[in-house]
Amino acid sequence: MDEVDKVDLQHSIIHLIVLFGVFLPPGALVFMRPDIVGGLPLALWVYWIFGYIYLVVHYFIWGWRRERAYRKMVGG
Amino acid sequence: MWWIPLVVIIVVVLATSLPGFIAYRYFKPKTLWDFMAAGKTLGLLTVTLSVGATQWSALSFMGFIAFYYIHGVPGWLAMGLAYMLISVFLYGLLGYRVNKLAERYKAVTPSDAVELFFKDKVTAVITGLLFFIALLPYMQVQIGGIAYILEVSSGGRIPFIYGALIAYIVMAAYMWFGGLKSIAWANILQGVFFLALAFGIGAYMLVLAGGTTGISQLATTMPQAFMLPGIAGVMTAAYLLSWSIPVQLGWPLQPQIYMQFAAAKRKEFLFYLPALIPIAATGLYFMQQVITWLAGRVLYPKSFPPGPDKLLITILYERWHPILFGLVGGAGMAAMMSTLSTQALAIGSAFVNDILRRIVKIEERKALIILKIIMILALFGGLILWFVMPWLLMTLGALSAAIGAITAISIIPALFNIRFVTKYGASAGMILGFAVLVYTTFVAKDPLGLYSGFWGMFTAVVTCIIVSLFTRKYRPQPLQY
Fold first, then answer.
1. pLDDT band at residue B289 using 50, 70 and 90 as cut-offs
2. Radius of gyration in angstroms for the set of CA atoms belonging to chain B, rounded to a whole number
3. Do B421 and B464 contact (CB within 8 A), yes or no?
């Protein structure tokens, strides 16, 4: 297992926890509700707004860490 | 003035195809490697937009909106968000390894990776054959989309075959000469045009839905649209999981996506692909589609008589200026063309590279010509089949996405050096998994309230584990890369 593999494993674990803890069942059973918060249903806030922020931020950090690990590995 | 949208659509189709011809000026593929993997010359932006455009298809304009209209937020979670949570994550995880294999061994298709790892042609041919079966009906969905856009745009005056033929001839021309490089370049402009329009459509639909007030009222009058099991009452937690996992796992493995990972110039590009796809997809999944089905439910709370798959096109046709509607139709056509062209290349590659070359010895130059012919035949054959027996193709289309998940048992071990899986385990798993998928799709539909794709994948994995346990002495050697 090289440096990039290690980073991938860490982020896969984080992603799986968030995936099933928030976005997919069983987590989704808690968050998917029609309650109105600030003019929008809670389900849209969680899955639309939070979902988007999580995706972009997590994927960028993951990409950045992978690149750093890769450069360290190849000595660049 | 009925002809205005049609003229605009034709202009958009021709204009967005131009980069495909320009690419040929700079890159003339001479070998299969050049043709299928663009000689591994695609940059980060090209890969991102091309992969995105391949995914934005007739389904994005019609089928998915219908799916969300029928199921509400649970449907959107299963498809739209789960795509970015599962498929896009896998783009990054698998894409880097696909590119490493391409760099070291010139392995372009999933079957190439399978043969490299298992040192077995049969397992590779089964993988290629399954993709061949999966892709043909998937292409027909695009043809159906083109048919509907042209029918609506001309007010039913012009048979869609004329418009479709123009799109097909243009596509066939740049595909024939430039292969993946031309397809990817055309995909960029087609994707950007589609995205720009998607933002506009999203903003318009938000106004039509009555803004956040309209959406919050919908949450009060139709709370089931925002919670499980959705409006139709079938999207239970178990069904949602059994649907999302195989479908979203299958997409990144299908050759039309996989080959573009192999074609990236540098493997480090794939590190940032997952972050860039959601940004590009915002216009589509987070605006256009979501707000369109919400507006649809605000305007037509009970049902939409022409059919929910026609929601977007019909609303815009009735309300927008013909030129503006023509641009939307053109964007829809561009989205479908970008998907069709990549799928046709993938079918040609699956047939020639994954099946034919593994059975018959054939020289490279001849193989390239056969690939081009199969690619064009798949394109036009699909069009003819659409007229002859569309019912069969649409039925088979349901299997398409889930087949990719079945092939995961042969592709994932090859990408991650999982030596526990043997060639016998992978082959038996794929065959039995496919048989169960067909059975649970057509005969005993969705047993125990779980999607047929799940049963296919589950059977494939269990069979693969059991057979691999019994054939341990055939464990493959790890790949060095």
1. confident
2. 22
3. yes
Tell me whether residue A35 is exposed, middle or buried, using C-beta atoms within 10 angstroms of its C-beta: 0 to 12, 13 to 18, 19 or more.
Answer: middle
ipTM of the complex: 0.96
**CA–CA dist B231, B241 (Å, integer):** 17
Q: For residue B373, give every residue at least 6 positions away whose Cβ sits within 8 Å of its Cβ, in sequence order, or none.
A: none
**What are the domain boundaries of chain B?**
4-397
Q: How confident is the model at residue B150 (pLDDT cuts 50, 70, 90)?
A: confident
**Mean pLDDT of chain B, nearest integer:** 89
Would you state the pLDDT for residue B389? Answer: 66
Spatial distance between the Cα atoms of B404 and B115, rounded to a whole number of angstroms? 17
Least trusted range by pLDDT, from B267-281, B282-296, B437-451, B454-468: B282-296
Nearest-CA neighbor of A76 among B267, B101, B48? B267
Q: What is the pLDDT of residue B52?
A: 84
* A vs B: CB pairs below 8 A: 114
Chain B residues whose beta carbon lies within 8 Å of the beta carbon of residue A4:
96
**pLDDT > 70? residue B326:** yes
Q: Which of B98, B103, B226 to mutate: most A Cβ within 10 Å?
A: B226
Beta bridge partners of A36: A41
B237 CB neighbours in chain A (<8 A) are 25-26, 28-29
Per-residue pLDDT at A48: 81
Q: Backbone phi, then psi, for B305, in 5-degree steps?
A: -55, -40
The domain B4-397 belongs to what CATH superfamily? Sodium/glucose cotransporter (1.20.1730.10)
SS3 B297: helix
Give the phi and the psi of residue A40 in degrees, each rounded to 5.
-130, 145
DSSP string, B430-454: HHHHHHHHHHHHHTS-SGGG--HHH
DSSP state of B118: H
Encoded tokens for B73: 């937020």
Does the distance separating the beta carbons of A26 and B216 come in below 8 Å? no
**Residues whose CB falls within 8 Å of the CB of residue B39, separated by 6 or more in sequence, listed in order:** B27, B29, B33, B181
CA distance A71 to chain B (A): 10
Crossing angle of the two packed helices B160-208 and B322-349, in degrees rounded to 10: 120
Q: Which residues of A touch B92 (CB under 8 A)?
A: 59, 62-63, 66
